[in-house]
Automatic annotation (TrEMBL):
Organism from which the protein derives: Candidatus Nitrosocaldus cavascurensis
PANTHER family recorded: ASPARTATE-SEMIALDEHYDE DEHYDROGENASE (PTHR46718:SF1)
Protein name: aspartate-semialdehyde dehydrogenase
Pathway in which the depicted protein is active: Amino-acid biosynthesis; L-methionine biosynthesis via de novo pathway; L-homoserine from L-aspartate: step 2/3; Amino-acid biosynthesis; L-threonine biosynthesis; L-threonine from L-aspartate: step 2/5
Tagged with keyword NADP: yes
Family listed: Belongs to the aspartate-semialdehyde dehydrogenase family.
Lineage: Archaea, Nitrososphaerota, Nitrososphaeria, Candidatus Nitrosocaldales, Candidatus Nitrosocaldaceae
Length: 358
């Protein structure tokens, strides 16, 4: 069992880590840390609003028994040398300060954007670009660290990159156009999206989201060459919107391919990739990495987001695109709080352990 610490354990994503690591066969949570306001309290008490007594627990499952009475540490109390792996669930500004100090001694897997775009930092999605993990050793040597920083992609990028991978491998990609319909949980709860803003409404702008997707998709699907990532050469354009759905990001993707292909060819490529994906035997891996529906009314967030505990990417409506000479279009659904967040980070940790990077 590897000894694990969680930084930012009382926040929404930190809570997801608490749940995702419950009874994990490889990782044991030895410490949880949060702000000075929570430090010194039992986890259960740190989640309780002092003025109202209301529990700020946002998960559908109860607080796992192992965490209830753990005493929350401050970040400054965490000695990275005491742990084999640290998960961080903090805002990017805090991550830029906290994560390098931890990575000097111990591998860090992060949900923040702070280091995603640096040359020696891969953006890893298990089963999509596992070979990029080699860059973590380059990062260690360049920075003189014993550990490393391995950030997850933006949750909107995750499902898109997973579905583009088999298309790129079989047919090549020239252009990608995507419109997202993103769940309100992706905005967090503080400050989040106000209820009166999202009810009976669609918000057609999410700050920095489009830029993240456009950069990250090309980096994830690029090639590792001489200690750096050569970004994929296709062009990406997207519009990201917020819709009144609790969980699950839906995306409408339009892909111009280098080679001609039919919808059935794309379906076959996705299912074949899902069947042979490299991470199938990892503890957190879903039975199906990609599920393709023939029913034109699917995927739907309410029906499909929790399939395989939210770790599958669900695809439907694969059809020819009439604007591109070679092209297809489809709808995908990815669970932003599972595969796109803490549970995806745990899956990444499993992949890195198998590669003996932990």
């Amino acid at each position: 069992m590897l000894k694990v610490a969680i930084i930012g354990a009382t926040g929404v994503v930190g809570q997801e880590f608490i749940v995702a690591l419950d009874k994990h066969p490889w990782f044991k949570v030895e410490a949880i840390a949060a702000s000075e306001r929570s430090a010194g309290k039992k986890y259960l008490d740190a989640l309780r609003d002092s003025s109202t007594g209301i529990m700020k627990w946002h998960q559908r499952t109860p607080i796992p028994d192992y965490a209830r009475d753990m005493v929350v540490k401050s970040v400054n109390e965490i000695d990275a040398k005491d742990y084999d792996l640290i998960f961080t669930a903090v805002e990017s500004d805090d991550a830029r300060i906290i994560e390098p100090k931890l990575a000097e001694h111990t591998p860090v897997i992060s949900t923040a954007a702070a280091f995603r775009y640096e040359q020696d930092v891969p953006i890893l999605i298990p089963g999509v670009n596992d070979e990029h993990a080699e860059l973590l050793d380059v990062q260690r040597k360049r920075r003189g660290w014993k550990g490393f920083i391995a950030p997850l992609p933006n949750c909107t990028t995750t499902g898109l990159a997973i579905t583009l991978k088999p298309i790129m491998d079989e047919f090549g990609i020239e252009r990608v156009i995507m419109t997202s319909l993103q769940a309100v949980s992706g905005a967090g709860r503080s400050p989040g999206v106000a209820a009166l803003d999202i009810f009976d409404n669609i918000i057609p702008f999410i700050p920095k989201e489009e830029e993240k997707v456009q950069v990250e998709a090309k980096k994830i699907l690029g090639r590792l060459v001489d200690g750096r990532i050569d970004d994929a050469r296709f062009r990406v354009s997207c519009t990201c919107t917020r819709v009144p759905v609790i969980d699950g990001h839906t995306e409408c993707a339009f892909v111009e391919t280098s080679k001609g292909c039919e919808p059935d060819d794309v379906k076959r490529a996705m299912l074949n990739y899902s069947k042979h994906v490299s991470i199938k035997d990892l503890p957190s891996a879903p039975e199906d990495y990609i599920i393709v529906h023939d029913d034109p009314s699917r995927p739907q967030p309410r029906l499909d987001r929790d399939v395989n505990d939210g770790m599958s990417t669900i695809v439907g409506r694969i059809r020819k695109d009439t604007a591109f000479e070679n092209g297809v279009k489809y709808v995908l659904l990815s669970h932003n709080e599972k595969m796109g967040s803490a549970k995806g980070a745990v899956l990444l940790a499993e992949m890195l352990k198998v590669k003996e990077l932990l």
